[in-house]
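Continued from yesterday's entry.
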Amino acid sequence: MNGGLPIEFGSLAICDAICMSTEGMKWSLPSRELIAYSVETMAHAHGLDALVLVSACDKITPGMLIGACLANIPAILICGGAALEGKIRGAPLGALNTLEARALVDQGEMSLEKYTEIENAQLPTCGSCKGMFTANSMACLAEAMGLALPGNGTIPAPYAERMRLAKHTGMRAVELAREELKPSDILSREALFNAAKAGMMIGCSTNITLHLPAIARAIGQQLTLEDFDAISRDVPQTVKLFPSSTSTMEDLHQAGGMSAVIREAIQAGILDGKQQTVTGKSLWENVRNAEVYDREIIRPIERPHAPHGGLFVLKGSLAPQGAVVKIGAVEPKMRKHTGPAKVFDSESAGLQALVDHQIREGDVMVIRYEGPRGGPGMQEMLSLTAYIAGSGLGGSVALVTDGRFSGASRGGMIGHVCPEAALGGPIALVRDGDMIEIDMEERKLNLLVDQDELERRRRIWTNEGTQCGKGWLKLYANGVGPAAEGAVFQ
């Protein structure tokens, strides 16, 4: 439509929802690297002038953005958009999802017929899940960092407006090629900080602490957990979507979308509006005419949901290099909790303990050997966290892991514990009954065990929980860096 010759090629595309709680989840995060390298490979092998990155869920968007940065030719992203809200006889499903409902069925509190009704109503249209999970988080942050057109983050998948945006994206790609405007011209350190700050404002998935550092590394920049911690302390959360509330991506779109959020953040001095974007204009020029239409969905800066960002970085004797929690989805009473550890060397073992009613109020579940190297692949544990919530334990049981969560997780769920168990981190030394102290307000995560005892345990530690895998997973496990640095394959 604008004088270009399109050449289409496909990529890996794992749906986390389908492989959740199966061995397939081990391949999800590693697929990000394969996607990135496939984009880079095709761009260089065929001498392409520009890239249109047509993306969808979780690891696909960051994988394509990393690949575009590695190729460093003109590139622009267009995501598929979010699904609409599921309803039963006109009533929104709200916070209940099929994974939490499963726990109610197992406990005899919900019939299978009611569960099936919820299951069938959950996703009434095409599109990514309705809340601020990883897919929608990264789609929104692509706008904030300047690599997608305004509207990319929130226009719902079924809307004709999404199709129009896709056409404009393709047309703009041709102009980018003529202008030779590359990712390295756009992704300055300030642009990456814009994305991280926007993520704190809208309560993004914990997975952004993996993906933004990986994107930064691909362009020769750096974004650390310390940066996320500093940003979180200074940036207020003005948007709360499912699972932190019952509001959806469609609600955010109708309230003004990311453009309205970004405009207010620039006016408040939070984001840098001078940054270059794929429109050829500055970030401020993109959003200067945006308006807020619903002040409960997009709160004013001076009346936020919280004075801090939606993610916290915790440190302490259990996580010397850091751990991450989605604070906006944690009940106030769980923000400070000390309890006995119940230790499991895999997600499946922890889930089975829940099903068998072995977890009691006050416990701290510790799931280890699920980090990037130990899993391998750093599995996403939505089924586990949803089962805790569905079992009525979300307000009394905490979960600490070197694995990770979906953006859909809610409650006292602390992930990305570094160093991971496979590298001999303190989480590898925890035993049943050890007391674990969680103080999210003070951003602390401590193992309350005498140092001499820990040293004694370290001397007899054998690393038996690490799964070596084979093929690509073995290669990945041998080459992946720590989660605190974005779990980048090195």
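--- second protein ---
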Amino acid sequence: MTNGQSTTATDKKRRRRIFRLLLLLFTLVMLLPDSYIFARHHQQWPLWAQIAWWLPTAITVAILYNGQHWKRTWRFTTVMVTTMCCTLPKIVYTLCALAGQGIACWWPPANDIGHLTGLAAAAATLITMAYGFIFGWKRIAVRHVDIFFPHLPEDFDGYRLVQLSDLHISTMGKDRALLKKIIDQVNTLHADAIAFTGDLINMTYEEVTPVQDQLSRLRARDGVFSVFGNHDYAPFDRFLRPGHPADTPLIEKERAMGWHLLLNEHCLISRGASKIAFVGVENIGRRPFPKMGRLDDALKGLPHDVFAILLSHDPSHWRMEVLPSTNIPLTLSGHTHAGQMKIGGWSPVKWIYREWSGLYEEGGQYLYVSEGTGARVPFRVGTKAEITLICLHRKT
């Protein structure tokens, strides 16, 4: 066995150990509040209610430990629905009840107050989660963003660029109404160009087949430009088996739809004697996600003074390589989905990504991070399916 093969095998074993540890921790998080509430209240329940109490957790654990099949879209969605609509309210109740019990050591009424507060908080959590799964992820928002650049060619002043990101086609299921609504909305914006910043699929290129005709309806004067996101390297088991190449059938499907798929390359757009460039890299991001992009290759042969728009799925690439190594004025990314849960200007994804939603600027270079047009899980609270209309202006 060569050193490279030995390193790969060791890396796989390490990843599998981490994966099993995460599964164990996830299982414990589900079981502990179940066990606490059951131990405290089960004497009052009939047998059927006791069985029903454990059923969601049993189903979720069975899916989690059923090999790797839980990564199929419907199984993954089942896990997330039961976790967020069942386990999360139970955790909220348990924390409130335990706090009440602790305070009751000094002030006895706190026991009942903790119980009632826990019930109210758990009910509010359940309603919020149910709203996110039933309605929240289907709400569409068109965001208008104006950005001013001193070096934008005059012929491109007012250039209208629509960004879509993270469609995750199979999450929409067999109901194509939402996708049709998104496409119709985009086409009414009369864009000069459409930029799709990755994650067209969840697991397999076959998800695109039923909607290929619909996606082909996207219209813009200069066309649709796209890049791959981490999910587009199907099958999505890179955490356990990293390193396989891009899925060729998906490349063929995107190009058959008339999209300009940019795999570490660029494309020039002309207006009169002026040009701008759309530059696209394959996914470059943090582990465990694949690092397939080569920015140097994408920029090869591009004149240094050409105004460039970079499509790069993961926003961490901006600070990792774009800012320190290039003068690219505008980067478009997605990937974060704003955590699919946002309260005001805060989201849990903020703990992971420094740039996770909206427009950022540093040293005259801009990054726009879309909150995603689709969703890996059919759920959103406080954030909507985003269509972004970016207008480029020449700063005078």
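The chain has a mean pLDDT of 89. The longest strand covers residues 140-149. Will compare against the first tomorrow.
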